[in-house]
Task: structure prediction
Amino acid sequence: MSQVTALVTKLSDLVENARLDPDQLTQVILNLTVNARDAMPEGGILHLETSTVDLDDAYIQEHPTVQPGRYVMLAVSDTRVGMDKSILPRIFDPFFTTKDVGKGTGLGLAIVYGIVKQSGGYVWVHSEPGHGTTFKIYFPVTTTAPEAPIPRNETASRPSGQTVLVVEDEAMIRGNVRLCLEQLGYHVMEAANGDAALRICQMNSHVDLVPTDLVMPGMGGHELAVEVGRLYPNVRMLFMPGYTEDSAARRDILMQGGPFLQKPFSVADLSNAVHQVLALPMRRP
Ligand SMILES: Nc1ncnc2c1ncn2[C@@H]1O[C@H](COP(=O)(O)OP(=O)(O)O)[C@@H](O)[C@H]1O
Ligand SMILES: [Mg+2]
Result:
């Protein structure tokens, strides 16, 4: 059984402000701490640390992709299994897992990566097999005053309460997209083609977004978009064309300025696209 024998925190009192969605930050901490727990089957120590740091010229020399500046640093460390160097390049890939079927989804770190990138931050990992792993995340410090917290309700721009209807005939892709979106906090429904999707819209007045494949047996994505636009003008569409699908279909979407996400995509791409489309103003007032 995995367990944390002790939790050691070193949290700075003077940590500065970073612009983050509190739910997304919770996701980050949860995914990292669950991994740390899984990495300590015989028990071990979980360390959480925060501080504000300057990533200066010397640091940039070693990490040329980093923007110099002040960052809020969050570190999550464990003291056990660690990772072999060979897997490090893949750990942030969606669906990469070394855990048994049913134990790991391989989505935790992909979601962490997506959220960190969305916030303009960086994530580094340091790991020693048998001695443990440290994940360090840097969020850019913001000097603008914190916004008043938005009252929590169905229409606030956070995932919870927003409903996404995933339309895709390939069950594997549909299931994966569903898992990702659920982990990101959306309420998710599924349909295997346009006809099924319309029936679901009819029964649920609360669909906010419909990411859809283009070519499906029965009603395809284009026809679905036309019908949804006609019947449910407040529902937003996101096309997910496959790379094998004909480029004329893709050109049509581009010409109409419709948002689309080319398959295959990463969890970060999906998270960004869904977030952005949901933030768009309604097509009709
Ligand atoms: N703290 C850790 N210690 C050792 N290995 C880790 C740690 N965190 C992540 N990993 C490795 O990275 C993989 C991917 O992690 P993640 O994306 O969270 O998916 P999952 O936890 O579902 O496997 C894990 O399967 C594991 O091999
Ligand atoms: Mg995990």
User: Anything to note?
Assistant: The radius of gyration is 21 Å. The chain has two domains: 6-140, 163-279. The chain has eight helices and nine strands.
